[in-house]
Fold this protein.
Amino acid sequence: MKRKISLVIRATVSIALMAVLIYMVRDSIPKMLTALKGVPVSIILFAYALFVISTITASVRLKILLSTKKISMTLFDIVKLTFVGYFFSSFLPTAVGGDVAKAFYISKASGRAINSYTTVFMDRFLGMCSLFLLAIGAFFCLKEIPKSGLHLLLPLLLLAGLLISVFLFNKRFAGSVGRAFTSFIPKKIKEKARDIYEAIHSFKNFKLKLLECLFISAVGQSTAFVSVYILAIGLKSPLPLMAVLLVMPISAIVSMVPSIYGTGPREMSIVILLSPFIGKDGALAIAFLWLGLLLTTALIGGIIHLVMGRYKAISAEIPQ
């Protein structure tokens, strides 16, 4: 029942925001369609190749994090799981997200449920941190930033990121927060939550690997966002690279709002934040081209999932 309610809420958010977005830019839709028809196929293929490279880079990050928990998987298997994660996030009518699906497969292969789920969580967290860093760097590199709410939104997102970081890596702060909010939670749930927190907190012992993953993440995400810059060239809409590196990380963070694969919040944020740079029709075209790259990856993930079966293609070896 809870899953059904969650799905209804997420679907409502996505449909409502997409409807509002289409209404807001209704006058720009004909221009957008004309612009999309003019994008060379070679540009789209090149942009998607960059996106695939970024996906492989994200898989390298997860492989390094899994090694800290002594879970060994081939990079090829992790890449497949990353694509499968896109599929679960996009097409299945369920509340199970791509990250949960990845963690589920890894836990079944390794037999270490808590370590698998917390590692995938840390992978997501580091990805979010690198998004913050990219956006902040681009913010200070841009000579002119149009008035579009970025001056207020970016500090708020940064503050949220810092609070989460302190909570994860400072036991005293986490303990204070926990005591304030867990007084009425049953003992068994408290113990499970404590085990999960300890598993996440233990990553603090691998500072160099975390920094390595953060760097890899920033490189991979930059590669993905450069594909947006390439698409803008194909649309013949001049778009500063720094504007891309500012707006796209923010849209990725906004896409974490409960919805169907971030659809709605992501497109809305891209159009609102990119419009001052390239106009509504260009921003709308970028939003739909980016959505197309994501859905293409999800389709490939679905094919991989059909081929690999439940656990066949996952080979995890746990050192004794």
Observations:
- The chain has a mean pLDDT of 83.
- The CA atoms of residues 50 and 224 lie 6 Å apart.
- Residues 39-77+111-258 form one domain.
